[in-house]
Structure formats: structure tokens, C-alpha cells
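Here is one chain, start to finish.
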Amino acid sequence: MTSAVSWIKADETAKGALLRILTERPFLLLPPPLHRLPFRVGNTVEIVGPSPSAKTLILTQAAINCILPKEWKGVQYGGLERAVMFIDLDCRFDVSSFSKALERRIVGDNGLRSSVKGNENGYDKDLFVECLKRFLYIRCYNSFEFLATLKTLHSRLQNEKEKQGSSVYMLMIDSIGAFYWMDRAFPSSSTVNNRKGLSLQTVVGAAVQEIQRILLAHPMLVLATKSAAFGDKQSTTEAIRKKSDGKMFNSRGPQNLPYRDFMPAVWQSFVSHRILLRASDGERTLQNHPTFSTEWLLPPLKFSDHFTVDEVRPSCVSTASYLYVIRA
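Its structure:
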């Protein structure tokens, strides 16, 4: 009886538990256009949009903000000083562009003029190297490699935690639907010898299950990009196929069609937040740069921001008009 009472006896108050949780898993504000909602480790944020709509660039800026330190040699960078695991399923991620974007951010925070060519001493190279050590990159060419990566990710994350002294904070998946058509082409979903056959649903289900297991041992914020399919009465398959025609994302026509999710339900239910990116209506531009609009689908929000991509200008403009510049 005594052991039972000691087992159910509270060892902390509700206030203490709340303070402990908020300290261990604080809310995180990401750079625009993801700044409208606070996130925590364990959340899965899906960034949906046509190509191009700066989805990978948004991941890049969030990764740079994560791997930069809060302060370095008296200079405030406002980063998290935590590692990022980036899984590239689209196989088009440019590490060189990522390095240049990191360099421009370091130069900008130092108040120096960015000059990637010819200004080799314009940034702190030691800081640059330390930041790149926190960026962990993996490329997968099919779903089997993706599943194999997830199967072995626990040991990789544990090794990085021991090496760097802190756990990986963000898991980024670029183009979660990259293998959609290959997985749909699997011949059969029937069971053989009490084992499920290969199909789109089983592959995505296995991936979600592995990610959930990883998050139990290594709590992280998951950011995933996905190409968008738009349509109303047409089938999802037809909507995805029309994306390659170039007509699907015309801002004056089908661009205004409702968004349709083509991923299996097991992935849709796994996502906690979803933001939709579209080309802005009409011919709205900022200094000849096309602008994009945002719409929060999950949770649904009633306002929309606009942003554009600029390779030269700083990543800040007037917030009154809800227009943001993202540095490429």
C-alpha cells in the first residue's frame, strides 16, 4: 500500500510542470513567411506550393537561423546554435547556394557589405565553418533510400548529439511527395506471407511511423515541403499531371482553384501545420521580382502575407503591408 501511495504521489505542481515543459520545449518563431505562428518540437509544418514558390529557400533561411549562434565574438546573430538534419528528396538542393546564403547572413549581421566574389575576408570564417558543421545533409533518390535513411537516423542523431553536445533541433524534408508517381506504380498492394505488399499507402505509412519513432527519442521540429495540386471537380491525379503544363499556376486562371491534397491520409493526419504558397494575383511585383501570397490552411487563419525573393537586398521590408523580402 505504501509503495502504491508513493507511486501516485505528485512530485511537482502543475505550475512547476508547465514551467519545466516551456523551458525544455520553448516556442520557436521562424523567419517570414512562417513567422505568424509559434512552433514547438514535435510539430510537423508542411510548406505547400507550386514550383517555383521559394519553398526550398524558406527551408534554407530557417536552417541558417537554426545553425547560427545567438552571439559570436560580441556580434548578435539571433540564431539557435542547434543542428539541422536536411533530407533532400528532390535531389536539386544546391549546397553551394546554401553556403553563399550563410555567408551573406554573417556579413549582413556584421554590418558589412556582402560581396561573395572578391571579399574573402568580409566574414568570420571560423563562425562559417562552425555553422556548416551543424548542417547535416542527406540525399535520397527513391523511397527505399528514404526509408533506409529513416531506419538508421536514430544512430546518426545520437552520434551527432554526442559529438556536438546538443541534439538536432530541426528535421527538414525537401519535397515529401517527390516519389509519388514511382510509388503509385508499385504493382500490387496485396499481402504475401502475412507481409504487406508495396504501395503508396504502405510506403508513406512506414515513413510516418519511422518519423514518429524518431521524434519520441529525439524531439525535433519537422519542416517538409510539398508541390501543390489545385483543382475543383477534376481528380487529384489530373490536377497533379497538369502541373507540368505551365498552365496550372497562371495567376489569372487555375491559380485561384482550391488546393487539393494528393498525399495519403496517414501523412495528412501527421501534419500539424500547413501553409500554402501561391503566385500573387495579377501582375504584382516588387522591383521586377514576382511576389507570392501565403495562406495558412492548418490552422486556418483569416489573413494573408505577401513575400518576394531578392538575391541582393536585406530580408526585411515594411510589415504594415505584410510584404516580406526573402534573400536567396
